[in-house]
Amino acid sequence: MVADARTLNAWRRWGYRVLPGELFSYVLHMRPAEWPIMAGHTLLGYVLAVGIKGAGSGEQLLPVLFALALWVICLNGGTLAINSVFDKDEGDIGYLITPPPLPRHLLAFSVALLAGGQLLAFALPSAFRLDYALCFALSLLYSVPPFRFKAVAGVDWLINMWGFGTLTPFAAWAATGRPLDAGHALVLLGFCPLFAGLYPLTQLYQFEEDRRRGDRTLALILGMRASVAVAIGCTLVAFALFGWAGWWLGAGAAAVLLVVPFAAWLVVLGPWYAGQARWTPADHQRGMYRALGAWAVTDLTVLLVFAR
User: Fold this and answer.
1) At which of 180, 198, 231 does a domain end?
2) pTM for the model
3) Taking the chain (308 residues) in consecutive chunks of 10 residues, what is each chunk's mean pLDDT?
4) For residue 4, is it within any domain?
């Protein structure tokens, strides 16, 4: 932990030297620590669309990389920055430890990122433009008063499970210009309940802070034990959809590989369910990052099975 803190402090000192004043704070509130995760899940749709061989040869790579930049930096970064504007968190938040004070023009900066990405999206196929527009609207409804569905448990859950789970990898698929077939639609749909399971897990380490602030998060309404139980149930639904997709697409024996990520999720969720009453906020935070690791294993396995 000491080494991690020193690395973090050194990285921030470097950042503030390169971007002095408040400039680097704008970048931090876009939470670049999440960008690799978002980029990886987005690119899953690209590899599913063109196959591993097509991705290796760079098929449709330039429009997809442009779409990736818009999705990760403008849409996701803008959304997270606008969250910071209205959340005013004092403690650690997702992908940002000890957030810096809010820069003076963070709201305008966030809106410019979101809107600029939408304008640039007109250079890409119509399916991507529509996907971006839908998620842009969801971002505003999620974060900005008077709607601020982030504070409405259940609605925030629906927005995130669809927005990150399914619409994010579809963005890269759409950027290739290829129509979406029913079998691969099932694969993308499987990530909706998978993220529905992950979402309450991301709130458990902020459980007490959210309670003190008066927020009604999904995890607070469900309670810790039920939150992990919901995650287990949603994971079962997700892998049932992946199995259905395997049958639909004729994946054959390759579908057996799905056992690997399924087991990874059980290894994460089983001890969490059994020990959640004794876990500290730091334990829950570590659990969240282990769940993200299981998510990454799922992404890779889905590609091996369905992107042939």
Assistant:
1) 180
2) 0.88
3) 58 81 88 91 96 96 98 96 82 74 93 97 98 96 87 83 96 97 97 95 83 78 92 98 97 95 97 92 91 93 94
4) no
